[in-house]
Amino acid sequence: MAAETIAATEKAVASAPPRTSAGSFKRLVSNRIGSAAALVIAVLWTVPTFGLFISSLRPESAIKSSGWWTILSDPQFTLDNYERILAGATSTNLAVYFQNSVVIAIPATVAPLVLAIMASYAFSVLEWRGRDWVFVGVFTLQIVPLQMALIPLLRIFSGTEISNVFPFLSLWVAHTIFGLPLAIFLLHNFMSEVPRDLIEAARIDGAGHVTVFGRVMLPLMLPAIASYAIFQFLWVWNDLLVGLTFSGGSRTVQPLTAALAAMTGDRGQDWHLLTAGAFISILLPLVVFFALQRYFVRGLLAGSVKG
Question: Is the pTM of this model over 0.85?
Fold first, then answer.
């Protein structure tokens, strides 16, 4: 009887689905403790943002005399803060810098993404001598400090005719170079998890590398692509060091973060303008994140676990 029980137990264990890291993570966030922790984190993240939004709509006198939480007992709202920030009534017109940040962030997100997708395909699907060593070399570039490359890149672009014709080119190149190692690493890990049988079946049907890349790999890589696009866009949008270094102090090139930093120094007491400018700076990243959030978690787990 004991032998039959042991055999039945072993059979049940063998037939049970394997416990994976993804399953453990799902069970952790699905229970009450995980839900409570997620709720606390969401509240801690949302309350300051909500307070910033409320403060940006309050008049200057109300901001300097009371906190934003008094809005229920003393409701005062105005759009003058946004009008002064965006209409150029102040010395800093954020509408121009907002446009500059959009022009910088979109190409600086798309360019490394396109290059990384093609490089990841070459590192994970194509067979060529020295592939693993080259990938290790690309991966180790992540540990190179960003500051080491600023001066060499600045000397390349400074005072050249191409920088005068395309003033944003140096910013695009800098952000692309700094973002490529991480992009190649993440997308390569995801692409390596695609079953080889799927690729071989496509090759047997007569598909070349272009067809396999476009019709097999790209649809499967959407979660990983969206996750990296969020990271890269947020990094470029919130960057200050690269923007200040390669913009040369030109108002027509500087990003929004440079304008906010100048406002903090020049207008440290104008909290009503700073709150409006800060909320404008986070508006577009929020839109990007919520638009791609359904791919975000799947992209974070892509390539990290099997099963």
Answer: no
